[in-house]
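testing teh design pipeline on a random one, pls ignore if ur not involved
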């Protein structure tokens, strides 16, 4: 059984009384455990919509989404929130860190919402900070960190709940080329450890590092949708 499977997924948005935008049109996609997958496509191709559905941030209009064997395609908002907290890690282009908290506290946030004891939260956050190379910078607040260090915090936070899938949306978009390469090296290490990583990108250099590229056009997959 695949780790995640989309079956004839469609998503449309009503824009006024007479206009319906079809963002995804019958997307079928299988993602295997430990796969490093890039999703690419022009602006308006459906990349962001697909990422939102994969991340349980939205529900499809029709079709099914199986995550870890569970059909999550028609869950309630509360149920989707629980799935996100337990099974999905997010890495965003803009980092999305809480500015008032230290790096360690930011990494702990998902663990706090899962009810983990404070001592255990701090122990896990410290280990994850070391794993992504934050070293002695882990007690600094985001504004005291470089962009690359902030993205390392975001990656550690995404790993906190030991998710099934990590979703990265243009993760090097706000970084210079050298710092971006450092972040991609961390991704390489994560996938070498068996993590499942899906990255939305427009950068062919990033795509070449992944196991497989899925390209979208007009809401449809235009490359082979199944893992080799």
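output:
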């Amino acid at each position: 059984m695949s780790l995640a499977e989309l079956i004839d997924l469609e998503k449309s948005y009503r824009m006024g009384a007479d206009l319906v935008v079809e963002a995804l049109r019958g997307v079928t996609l299988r993602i295997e455990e430990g796969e490093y997958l890039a999703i690419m496509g022009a602006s308006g191709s459906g990349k962001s919509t697909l990422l939102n559905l994969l991340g349980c941030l939205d529900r499809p209009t029709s079709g099914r989404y199986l995550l870890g064997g569970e059909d999550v395609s028609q869950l309630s908002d509360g149920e989707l929130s629980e799935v996100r907290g337990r099974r999905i890690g997010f890495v965003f282009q803009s980092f999305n860190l809480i500015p008032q908290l230290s790096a360690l506290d930011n990494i702990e946030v998902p663990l706090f919402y899962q009810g983990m004891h404070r001592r255990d939260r701090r122990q896990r956050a410290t280990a994850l900070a070391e794993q992504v190379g934050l070293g002695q910078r882990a007690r600094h607040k985001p504004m005291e960190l470089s962009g690359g260090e902030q993205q390392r915090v975001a990656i550690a936070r995404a790993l906190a709940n030991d998710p099934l899938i990590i979703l990265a949306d243009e993760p090097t978009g706000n970084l210079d080329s050298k710092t971006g390469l450092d972040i991609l090296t961390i991704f390489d290490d994560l996938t070498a450890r068996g993590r499942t990583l899906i990255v939305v990108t427009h950068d062919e250099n990033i795509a070449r590092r992944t196991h497989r590229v899925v390209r979208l056009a007009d809401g449809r997959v235009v490359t082979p949708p199944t893992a080799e």
